[in-house]
Amino acid sequence: MRDLLPAVLSELNVAIPGSAVASATLIFSHLAQLCLRGRASEYWVVQKAEEIITNTGCPSEIIALPLGQLCGLTNEWGAGWGRTRDALTATVRIACSNQLALTEHR
User: Fold this and answer.
1) With contact defined as beta carbons under 8 Å apart, do 77 and 90 qualify?
2) For a designed S-S bond to 39, which of 21, 34, 95, 101 qualifies (C-beta 3.0 to 4.6 A apart)?
3) Residue 39 phi/psi, 5° resolution?
4) C-alpha dihedral over 18, 99, 65, 76, to 10 degrees?
């Protein structure tokens, strides 16, 4: 499957990211768009961001991205301690906005 990705991206005229950080930035921006457009829940976005961070070996450059800073938030969600669900949702939406703003400035 991984071997097909460059061909598919090329066919779609999508630039192939040159590093794990560039790839994470691209994916995080897509996740942020899905969330802010109401096509993905905030909790799902956090789950996916954590999955990406874990699968890339937890590099600090990815954790430093706005969605990367949400790492660990699933532990707080529904656990009965910490922030309310509304507060967590607001935190994710702010991170999504910040992720998109970061992408626009590059």
Assistant:
1) no
2) 34
3) -100, -5
4) -130
pLDDT of residue 83: 92
The count of other CB atoms within 10 Å of the CB of residue 31 is: 23
Please write the tens of the pLDDT for every residue from 15-47: 666 778 888 888 999 999 999 999 999 999 999
Q: What global pTM score does this model have?
A: 0.82
Alpha-carbon distance values, 59 to 24, 31, 34, 65, 102 (Å): 11, 19, 24, 11, 18
d(CA 64, CA 95): 11
Return the structure tokens found at 95: 């991170």
| Cα–Cα distance for residue pair 60/69, rounded to 1 Å | 10
Tokens of 100: 């998109």
Query: Which residue in 78, 77, 31 sits closest to 52, CA to CA?
Result: 31
Cβ neighbours of residue 68 closer than 8 Å, sequence gap 6 or more:
24, 28, 49, 53, 62
Cβ partners under 8 Å of residue 96, min gap 6: 31, 32, 33, 35, 36, 45, 66, 67
